Amino acid sequence: MSARKVMLLGEIGVGKSSLARRLVFDKFEFDYKPTIGVDIYRYEVPASATRSATTLIIWDTDGNFGDALFRHIYMKEAAGALIVGDMARAPTLETMVKLAAGFRDAFPGRHSAFIVNKTDLVPDADLAPLPSGLTQAGSHLIRTSAKTGSNVAKAFIETADVIARRGL
To answer: What is the domain-level CATH number for residue 141?
Structure first.
């Protein structure tokens, strides 16, 4: 079984920790506890027809790093990043575009995808407009709800698939 490091990036309060906890423990906690530094989770992705079983080592960052994040030791050997924003807070969606550009510059060829989280808070979230940088051709985007669990596992499994295809 191979192991791959995946970073969770995004502003404070977008639900990075909630996504990781929903994925790993299949539960949602209503009391908010901000991450200080980084929390690390393991998730076993079962084998599929196109990929062997993979362990994702998920690094949940605290969101306070700014541009210095890409020079931080936490990022070393990351195979990919899931860049998270809050559907109910538009400025976090703009930040996602900037984080993606920074990640791609610092780690060319590595996988990155956008997770627009908290879709349960926005009526018709699947129809809500998003910044053009999130929807441009070649960008992978998935809308999730850590609270309901909607699309959470799918986002991480798709990440494992892309990392395996790229041989990262």
So the answer is: 3.40.50.300
Helices H / strands E in the chain, number of each: 4, 6
Let me know how long the chain is.
168
- Number of structural domains, the chain? 1
Ramachandran category for residue 87: left, alpha or beta (phi over 0 → left; psi -120 to 50 → alpha): alpha
pLDDT tens by residue, 11-50:
999 999 999 999 999 999 888 777 777 889 999 999 998 8
Which residue is it, tokens 């995808």?
A: 113
Q: Say if residues 56 and 111 touch (Cβ distance below 8 Å).
A: no
- Calculate the CA 163 to chain-centre distance: 13
Domain span holding position 38: 2-166
Strands 54-61 and 38-45: antiparallel
Structure tokens at 153: 């596992």
DSSP state letter for 111 = E
Distance CA 145, CA 152 (A): 7
